[in-house]
Specification:
Layout: H1 2-15, H2 19-35, H3 41-51, H4 57-81, H5 86-92, E1 93-95, H6 99-106, E2 111-115, H7 122-131, E3 135-140, H8 146-156, E4 162-165, H9 169-175, E5 181-186, E6 198-202, E7 205-209, H10 212-220, E8 223-233, E9 236-245, H11 255-270, H12 290-305
Parallel strand pairs: 1-9, 2-5, 2-8, 3-4, 3-5
Antiparallel strand pairs: 6-7, 8-9
Length: 307
């Protein structure tokens, strides 16, 4: 009952307000975060310190403050996302070089769109199906609350996106292969199993990276496109596409994962405030013998996908 009341009587009515008004609420919330209730302060500070050991204390503090400000903008934009019109999304979320996707579509090539939790990914989830000719699909874990999971995904799918469960995504993708699809993945989440992860250097530390994008590309022969989302000004974003591979069978083990993760790393280093530092990104324990693990993973991968 509480969830329903909050959704219908608070969140949805707020979402109909102009974005500039929502920003007033979240500007106040930002002041609360940096003074009274510093959300996940230790996690954020620890992540930034390990990622930028060469920066001064004041520089790291500046990144934290800027992150809190951006985080509050995302709250306003996330609420607005529930009812934002197609016309408004088209104005506020643009694509610099959509011809990359149209060329792949004309080749009848399905695509994995990969990036991370950088800038506004929720607007892309909602807009993707009308931005590109491919049928949009998104892979995600269900929320703890079944009510919120249902309602949020209904809103995300209202312009044609298909949200599929991470546990049965292979089955769902197979059902949709009659038409080129574009599967949206965010590759910077902490993987569930450190022994099944791809370990690499990322932001100055050994990091477990989910290998799902690379496995999917090889299994389905999907092209891989990295997308960069840049904040042009408050409430306005521009997306740029970078083709990583249009023939994954030619890529060696790890190449695709290294490529999209390093592109994200470059973006974070350039403008660190736009990444979600509040995530417990490095909670997986580093294996005692990474090289042995990598050799075993590579061998299994090559056995499965070698010609």
């Amino acid at each position: 009952m509480v969830a329903k009341f909050a959704y219908y009587c608070l969140v949805i009515p707020l979402s109909y307000l102009p974005l500039r008004v929502l920003y007033l609420f979240t500007d106040f919330f930002y002041l609360v975060l940096i003074t009274l209730v510093p959300y996940r302060k230790k996690v954020i500070e620890g992540n930034i310190e390990r990622s930028f050991p060469d920066k001064s204390k004041s520089e790291r503090a500046k990144i934290k403050r800027q992150f809190y400000q951006h985080f509050c903008d995302l709250l306003a934009e996330g609420i607005k996302n529930l009812t934002i019109s197609k016309a408004a999304l088209t104005r506020r979320f643009t694509v610099k070089n959509s011809e990359v996707m149209y060329q792949l579509y004309n080749q009848k090539k399905s695509v994995i769109l990969v990036s991370g939790h950088y800038n506004n990914w929720e607007w892309l989830i909602t807009a993707q199906n009308f931005l590109f000719p491919h049928q949009a699909m998104g892979i995600g874990m269900p929320m703890t609350s079944k009510f919120w999971d249902k309602k949020i995904n209904e809103r995300r799918m209202r312009y044609g996106m298909k949200v599929i469960h991470s546990k049965n995504f292979i089955e769902e993708i197979n059902k949709n292969l009659h038409h080129p699809v574009a599967v949206l993945t965010l590759g910077d989440q902490s993987p569930g199993d450190s022994t099944k992860s791809y370990w690499m250097d990322f932001l100055n530390q050994k990091t477990a990276v989910a290998f799902g994008t690379e496995m999917m590309a090889h299994q389905f022969d999907f092209a891989v496109v990295y997308f960069s989302t840049r904040k042009i000004k408050r409430g306005h974003y521009e997306m740029e596409l970078f083709l990583i591979s249009d023939d994954p069978k030619k890529n060696k083990w790890g190449e695709i994962t290294e490529a999209h993760t390093k592109k994200l790393e470059l973006e974070i280093k350039s403008n660190p405030q736009f990444w979600i530092w509040s995530h417990k990104r490095w909670k997986r324990e580093v294996p005692t013998d990474i090289e042995k693990l990598r050799n075993e993973q590579k061998s299994k991968f090559e056995q499965r996908f070698s010609k």
